[in-house]
Amino acid sequence: MKFRRTHRRPRGSEETDLDMVPIMNMFLVLIPFLLMSASFIHLKVVNTSVPVLGNGKASINQESTIKLTVVATLAKNQIDLSVLSEELEPVALSKWERVIHISGNPQEAYDALSSHLRSIKEAYPKSDTLILVPDSTVIFEKIIQTMDVARASENGPLFPNVVLSGKVG
Amino acid sequence: MALGRKRRKKQPFIPPKLQITSMMDMFTIILIFLLISFSEDPNAIRMDKDMQLPKSNAKIDYKTHLRVVVSQTSVKIGEEVIARLEGDTILGMDPDNLNRSDLYRRLKTFSPADDTTSDDHRDPILLLCDKRLSFKVINNVIKTAGMAGYPNFQFAVLQEK
Fold first, then answer.
1. How far is CA A123 from CA A40, A66, B81, in A?
2. Is the pLDDT confidence value at A106 over 70?
3. Which SS3 state, helix, strand or coil, does residue A55 take?
4. How far is B10 from chain A (nearest CA, A)?
């Protein structure tokens, strides 16, 4: 005797549609709320410091490699560059002095600054500090742009430690 | 021969079902994405509408220790207004006596009591400065902060695309 399987549904279990409307309503409230409170700004930072008084234990470079500190004085229309080092004679230091004029296109000035800093870096690869001395009238945006140029170029890092200093006197 | 209209059997009206499954899928994905991006950054910074940060190629993420906001109208620590700005002048701040300003006193309350920490290891201040501000204003703020025991700073910038 054959017993055939029945494919009948058990009684009482009917196909029911889930009522999605309340969930949809909830989503419609949540999504605009989250969109409003979401931030799409990518905030990053530029590290800097101010010059501080030393504690008398200043590290003297024992290595043969000379380390220079570049000083960039930023005015509205020009950037004056000079270098400091205890290990070099003033004559040797003076050859790195340069004045870059910022005329119509500031990008040209930044390119000139970048290439000059690159040549200092190539001559003294251990150098990593630049002291930026902006004029009191220079706007903050210009300072950040100069810091960007000083920190790195397309060919690699230049002077990652940028110290911000006010003019003395 | 009767030429009458052929009577059709009237079908009962069945309201059409809205197919919302695909819409639900889409909404679920958006909701999950928004919830993740919301929880990703618990220290998200709220900025004033008139605040304009400079753009930079910097790639360093910020650490929120102490936040000083310098806008074109005020100097704030967090949400607390410390001083008002009039042009390039911070009201109540004498550039020759920065340690008598409210900003110095307020920053001093946050700085660690022991001064043994080396300058390199002190927590930096996160400075949010408007890009239109002159260095005169910023210099007074950073000098005051340096005197109060915060020589290291992080300038907040917008990432350049």
1. 42, 9, 48
2. yes
3. coil
4. 26
| Amino acid in the structure at residue B30 | I
Report the C-alpha gap between A30 and B8 in whole angstroms: 49
Instruction: Please indicate whether, in this complex, the C-beta atoms of A141 and B132 are within 8 angstroms of each other.
Output: yes
Please report, as a single letter, which amino acid is at residue A44: K
Cβ <8 Å between B159 and A31: no
Say yes or no: ipTM exceeds 0.90: no
Flag if A47 and B153 touch (Cβ within 8 Å).
Answer: yes
Tokens of B62: 């910020």
How many Å apart are CA B152 and CA A50, to the nearest integer?
Answer: 7
Per-residue pLDDT of chain B (161 residues), as tens digits, is: 556 566 667 788 887 777 778 888 888 898 888 888 776 665 566 677 788 899 988 888 877 678 899 999 999 998 889 999 888 888 888 888 888 888 898 888 887 655 555 555 568 888 899 999 999 999 999 889 888 888 888 898 888 76
A60 touches chain B (CB under 8 A): no
Determine, for residues A47 and B60 on separate chains, whether the beta-carbon distance falls below 8 Å: yes
Beta strands in chain B (DSSP E): 55-56, 66-70, 74-77, 80-86, 89-90, 125-129, 152-159
The predicted pLDDT at position B94 comes to 84
CB A48 within 8 A of CB A131: no
pTM over 0.80: no
Instruction: Choose the mutation target among A23, A49, A110 for the interface with B, i.e. most B CBs under 10 Å.
Output: A49
Tokens, residue A53: 């008084």
- In chain A, whose CA is at the least distance from the CA of B119? A52
* A47/B126 CB distance under 8 A: no
